[in-house]
Amino acid sequence: MEGFLQQYLRLYRPLISSLNELLGKYNLSYSLWQVIYYIKHHGPSTLVEIAKRYSVEKPTITRRVSCLEDLQLVEKIESRDRREKLMQLTPKGEELYAACRKEISNLEREILEKLSENELQSFFETLSKIRQQLAEKEGKQK
């Protein structure tokens, strides 16, 4: 099927722009939000774990975490391996997560409000299949 990538990009770019606009009120971007979201849902995490989850290089995550540390949203905690940076959300980071999560949930509801439950279920199943197909393809290339 031709046009899948074009359709996806026509959806992706406006969504990221909307998220960046929403998060900008909190001095965040979507890329910074990804780190906060990961730590919130996985607990204290290493930079390598976060980088692997989002398929980006560790230096990229290091820069993001440094920015979040400057904003006092994440902090380094002791880990068993002194060479690893283990990061957790600060109380300020937890508070900010809750505020942003509420606004993001409202945005999601607005965007998806005209879809039926069946359409949503089908959409999420399709996304999952595409993600699985990409993971399988990536595994074959390594």
UniProtKB/TrEMBL annotation:
GO molecular function (one): DNA-binding transcription factor activity
The UniProt entry, under SUPFAM superfamilies, shows:
Winged helix' DNA-binding domain (SSF46785)
- PROSITE patterns named among the record's database cross-references: HTH_MARR_2
InterPro entries, alphabetically? HTH_MarR-typ, WH-like_DNA-bd_sf, WH_DNA-bd_sf
Q: Which residues form the HTH marR-type domain?
A: 1-132
UniProt KW Transcription regulation keyword: yes
**Protein's name in the database:** MarR family transcriptional regulator
